Structure formats: structure tokens, C-alpha cells
TrEMBL record:
Residues covered by the CN hydrolase domain: 5-249
Protein name (record): omega-amidase
Catalytic activity field: 2-oxosuccinamate + H2O = oxaloacetate + NH4(+); 2-oxoglutaramate + H2O = 2-oxoglutarate + NH4(+)
Keywords: Hydrolase
Keyword Hydrolase: yes
Source species of the chain: Aplysia californica
EC number: 3.5.1.3
Pfam family, one: CN_hydrolase
Record carries keyword DNA damage: no
Taxonomy, superkingdom: Eukaryota
Alphabetized InterPro entries for the sequence: C-N_Hydrolase, C-N_Hydrolase_sf, Nit1/2_C-N_Hydrolase
Enzyme class, first EC level, given as a word: hydrolase
Segments passing through the bilayer: none
Length: 284
């Protein structure tokens, strides 16, 4: 395992033209790879404006045109690519899905958002993804020569147990394509990333779309990378940009040895774990 490597979180300006979005993503992936990034992450909903009214129109299967374009970009630039997310059509269902590619352009994993964004804050924001989307049923992790990586999407970051289990399973980097908004963004976006990083002593990174004040959903932006000490080591404002950070797994190990939480858990009092296969409500 290589203990130091660069990641890039692409805060891309997403518009209404799907071909335009795919071309923009490909250009930014090239730029990030030229800057030395080995793992590149795009934002939630990078091929479509974010919003339930857009999902049916922009939805497509995986594999499909968007995932094939991203497979080609991963291969051309020889990078691991977490291709943000797209509305994925599968039979009569639509998921919010992140396809993940290796440097050969092969899809190595796919995450379907497991916690749908259903909130109602009167006078501020109401979103009910579940009116259109179906939830995924699996946690998503993939291996790289650097470390094992966990992937979840946006609202998934609010569920601490998911990050804990991915950490228990050996992930040292958790990547969250996401699109927080102008109400919960300033209140919770950074706090959640720092919380997940500090509790689990892992690196946590997010990629948001750039803010478009003309869009029906205004993204908060502020894509970031947080280290296992809970420090924001790289971030940005609301505009289109690429957030880079050097991941240092020796530093992570140093922190884990200095503050040895992993040996101090009271499993006699509590335990966070996956349910047994037979207890899962629906088959995978
Ligand atoms: N797209 C999302 O899941 C948004 C999540 C969000 O804004 C939150 O507050 O949580």
C-alpha cells in the first residue's frame, strides 16, 4: 500500500445540458489527473440538475451513456473515478447512483444512495426524494493500491453508523458526493464531515456541485477534505473549482496510536454492526 496520495474533489458547475455536463466532467477529470490526483470524485447529480422534477427525464441505465463516458475518462487519465451520482433507471425504479471506475475503466462498484433526502423545514426547504427515487440496499466500498475507500451519497453522511461500519471494514477514506443547500449547508455540512472523520479517525471528503443561483435547488458548494484529526485540510467557496488534498495514511496511524479509540471501545456495553443476512428485511 502507498501511504501518501493525492485526491481531487471536483466542484463542477452542472447545467441543464447532459452532453454539456459530461464534457465538463471529462475536462475537469483531465485537469485533476494532470495535477497528480489518483482518486477523483465528481458531485452528486453531475449529469443533471438536482431535483425530483429532473430525475425521470435525465435518468438512464448503468451501464449507459453517462457511465460509459466516465469509464472512458477514468481509463484515459488512468485514475480511480467516483463518478458523483446520476439518476439511474433500473426497470421501473430510479436510484441516485454513483458508478465507480478503476484506472482501466472497469466499473468496480456502484453505490445507490441508501438514505433518501426527505426533509421539510417550513419556509426554508422541502425535499422528498422518495416521491421519485428508490433507496439502495447496500454499503459500498472499493479497494485501491492506496487504501480501501467507502462511498456514500450526501444525506447518507448524516447516518454515523454507516461511516462507522465502513471504517470497521477497513476503509481509511470516505468519499461523499453531495449537494447540501443554503439552509442545512451552513449549519451542518462541515460539522458532519468533521464528525465522521473524528469519530472514525479517517479521512472524509465531499464533492458538491458549484452554486447556481438560477437553479431550482441552490447548492451550498464548499467541497472539502477533512483529516482524521478533524481538521479541514482543503476546501473552497461556492464557485466551480477542484479541491485537492494529500492523504497521508502514516499521519492517520499516528493519530490512531496517540488517541487509541479502536482498542478502547466497550463492546460489552454497545456495538455498531451490520444485521445478520437473515435479518435483512428485503433480499439484496
Ligand atoms: N442531496 C441531499 O441528500 C442533500 C442533503 C442535505 O442537504 C442535508 O441537509 O442532509
Amino acid at each position: 500500500m502507498m501511504s501518501k496520495f493525492k485526491i481531487a474533489m471536483v466542484q463542477m458547475a452542472v447545467g441543464t445540458s447532459k452532453p454539456g455536463n459530461l464534457a465538463r466532467a471529462a475536462a475537469l477529470i483531465k485537469e485533476a489527473s494532470s495535477a497528480g490526483a489518483k482518486i477523483i470524485t465528481l458531485p452528486e447529480c453531475f449529469n443533471s440538475p438536482y431535483g425530483t422534477k429532473y430525475f425521470p427525464e435525465y435518468a438512464e441505465p448503468i451501464p449507459g451513456p453517462s457511465s460509459e463516458a466516465m469509464a472512458a475518462a477514468a481509463k484515459e487519465n488512468k485514475v480511480f473515478l467516483v463518478a458523483g451520482s446520476i439518476p439511474e433507471k433500473c426497470g421501473d425504479k430510479i436510484y441516485n447512483s454513483s458508478a465507480i471506475f478503476n484506472p482501466e475503466g472497469e466499473m468496480v462498484a456502484m453505490h445507490r444512495k441508501v438514505h433518501l433526502f426527505d426533509i421539510d423545514i417550513p419556509g426554508k426547504i422541502r425535499m422528498q426524494e422518495s416521491e421519485i427515487l428508490s433507496p439502495g440496499k447496500q454499503m459500498t466500498m472499493f479497494r485501491t493500491p492506496y487504501c480501501q475507500v467507502g462511498v456514500a451519497i450526501c444525506y447518507d453522511i448524516r447516518f454515523a453508523e454507516l461511516a462507522q461500519i465502513m471504517t470497521q471494514k477497513g476503509c481509511h477514506l470516505l468519499l461523499y458526493p453531495g449537494a447540501f443547500n443554503m439552509t442545512t449547508g451552513p449549519a451542518h455540512w462541515e460539522l458532519l464531515q468533521r464528525g465522521r472523520a473524528l469519530d472514525n479517525q479517517v479521512y472524509v471528503a465531499t464533492a458538491s456541485p458549484a452554486r447556481d443561483t438560477q437553479a431550482s435547488y441552490t447548492a451550498w458548494g464548499h467541497s472539502s477534505v477533512v483529516n482524521p484529526w478533524g481538521e479541514v485540510i482543503s476546501t473552497t467557496d461556492e464557485k466551480e473549482s477542484i479541491v485537492y488534498a494529500d492523504i497521508d495514511l502514516e499521519r492517520m496511524e499516528e493519530i490512531r496510536n496517540q488517541v487509541p479509540l479502536r482498542n478502547q471501545r466497550r463492546h460489552d456495553l454497545y456495538r455498531v454492526s451490520e444485521p445478520a443476512e437473515e435479518d435483512r428485511r428485503e433480499e439484496l
